[in-house]
Amino acid sequence: MEYFLLAVSYLSLFLSLFWLQVLFLPDTKHTLKRHPTVTIAVPAHNEEQTITQTLTSLLNLDYQKDKLEIIVVDDGSTDNTAAIVRNHQTIRLIKKPTNQGKAAALNTALAAAHGELFACVD
Question: How far apart are the two ends of the chain, measured CA to CA in Å?
Fold first, then answer.
């Protein structure tokens, strides 16, 4: 019972301090002094239904467009995934002939990436 009361007290204190910080501390916007180049990899296998929404979201990121590289690895899709990606001229497409899995697609993108930072979406 003693540990329960201690845990409840700690949780109450934590939540109180959190909300005081959120409500009363000034909102300072953090800005980068330098924008690193970023590569975002999108492994895709038969993603015809969702790839447009994914690419639209990535293209609408609030980041310098000249510092952003998007690579879609079409991992042996049998649908129109590659054709949809080709409609986006700023996105790089790597088409693999057979499905080798997500890990292999990410490794392919990593080998082709030029960015200082590397991220993936799934």
Answer: 44
3-state class (DSSP) for residue 38: strand
How wide is the angle at C-alpha 60 spanned by C-alphas 96 and 53, nearest 5°?
A: 50
pTM given for the model: 0.73
Give the whole-angstrom CA distance, residue 108 versus residue 67: 20
Q: What is the pLDDT of residues 66-107, one digit of tens each?
A: 999 999 999 999 999 999 999 998 999 999 999 999 999 999
Q: Is residue 54 within 8 Å of 85, Cβ to Cβ?
A: no
DSSP-assigned states of every residue in 39-96: EEEEEESS-TTTHHHHHHHHHT-SS-GGGEEEEEEEES-SSSHHHHHHT-TTSEEEEE
Closest CA to 54 of 38, 71, 35, 76: 71
